[in-house]
Amino acid sequence: MDISKIKFNEQGLIPVIAQEAKDGTVLMLAYMNKESLQKTVETKEMWYWSRSRKVLWHKGATSGHIQKVKELYYDCDADAILAKIEQVGDIACHTGERSCFFNKLL
């Protein structure tokens, strides 16, 4: 992956969708900055930028529910990332749910 092609927004962030590689479940939406993207590529585990805490966030560092990277893609405009991951522990959401997308709207 050539990180230089990625278009970060005016805050230096890019949205990332984490998708379970084995079954396609969309688990969460988070954000990365350049440093967290580089750490993700280097370690093959997901790192994000916490917008509320303003710190790098190694997914699962405290809970043990890490995300192992299987594949990373960027979209046609290079302004969004899709991470196909292996969710260790089967919980991605801070609420304890498997996916952050459990609130049905329609």
Automatic annotation (TrEMBL):
Question: What keywords does the record list, in alphabetical order?
Answer: Amino-acid biosynthesis, Cytoplasm, Histidine biosynthesis, Hydrolase, Magnesium, Metal-binding, Zinc
Note on how the cofactor is bound: Binds 1 Mg(2+) ion per subunit.
Q: Which reaction does it catalyse?
A: 1-(5-phospho-beta-D-ribosyl)-5'-AMP + H2O = 1-(5-phospho-beta-D-ribosyl)-5-[(5-phospho-beta-D-ribosylamino)methylideneamino]imidazole-4-carboxamide; 1-(5-phospho-beta-D-ribosyl)-ATP + H2O = 1-(5-phospho-beta-D-ribosyl)-5'-AMP + diphosphate + H(+)
Question: Principal localization?
Answer: cytoplasm
Sites where the protein binds Mg(2+): D75, D77, D79
Enzyme Commission numbers on file:
3.5.4.19
**Has keyword Ribonucleoprotein?**
no
Q: Where is the Phosphoribosyl-AMP cyclohydrolase domain?
A: 28-102
User: Which InterPro entries does the UniProt record give?
Assistant: PRA-CH, PRib_AMP_CycHydrolase_dom, PRib_AMP_CycHydrolase_sf
| Protein residues bound to Zn(2+) | C76, C93, C100
Q: Which PANTHER family match?
A: HISTIDINE BIOSYNTHESIS BIFUNCTIONAL PROTEIN, HISTIDINE BIOSYNTHESIS BIFUNCTIONAL PROTEIN HIS7
Instruction: Give the quaternary structure.
Output: Homodimer.
What this protein is called in its record is Phosphoribosyl-AMP cyclohydrolase
Gene name linked to the record: hisI
